[in-house]
């Protein structure tokens, strides 16, 4: 714990100088969408171990490539035992220390501050707002989901911060990480390249996109991912919200992640707990689900409806943040490739900024996703790993056609893992797309 201003200044100076003189780390470039609004801080959020700190360094590297000298960039991590007990009143000394080292930057040139794990300092929000108002700087903030959740940043920064969400690797980012990212559009690739992509997609659906999990053997990967989940539940949910029934939370997680891409009803789960003699209120269960979503462990989507009541009374479909988590909780013994593919498609839709729901048609069919993109386009998307039979293809198409009776402006699309047999046929108003092409955002389609 720090005891004097001189000790604080010494640590500040050491960390600033070390960060400015260290070599830029070699890292896989991330495709994270950034809001382009002047005068706002950028809060980098996301699940633990998804790569938020690495993304801060990527942003710094982009500035260097654009010509900003290293002395104009300040990376500072507050996750340091020497800074334990730091208070908001001590944060001003960080700014003073930087400008004492580089006085030529004060007011004359625009510096950029990258403050990592700043949520460890109580009252950091007031400092961040004042920094934006009083100094000629761009401000980037990042931290664990425990104390820097999106809605908390929005409220504590009083509209002064926008968010960028870092997720585990997308399929393209994973390919980039292992050196297999295509340099051409999908339809221009060779047959050998298509086969390699199909193999890599199988690996991606199984191992997921957490950076540290890439290339690990199955046992090591499962141990790593289980540790991620355990730490998240303990720190970001149980301790943070002071839960009195942590076992109920763990049962819920098992239910949710053990049925990836399945529907989940609070009412049914409540009834199941009641039958076991577990006394817990429905409101508490709703809170637990929201805590898990706030911590980025999972995403739930509601039924497609203009009625708020319909969205509330119908079950939600639940997806883990990463396909690699499915095997940890699924007890069926099956490969669950279809559920993993559906999960991958959902997260790519979210990365693309779409509002996503699922569709229950008048005829009693279900379509996996209705997506509304930022530009107003709509899509009905059905995901199927195996359409090797005409019966399967017919069933999937029937659901899409029935949904289009309600959603007439939506483009209908069937995303499949493997190319269909040549003797299968489908209507011209349904686009059939290979998942490897769609996940790369190259909309390659088959046509009759």
From TrEMBL:
Residues 235-385 form the DUF4143 domain. Coiled coil: none annotated. Residues 40-175 form the AAA domain. Pfam families: AAA_14, DUF4143. This is ATPase. It comes from Limnohabitans planktonicus II-D5. The lineage of its organism: Bacteria, Pseudomonadati, Pseudomonadota, Betaproteobacteria, Burkholderiales.
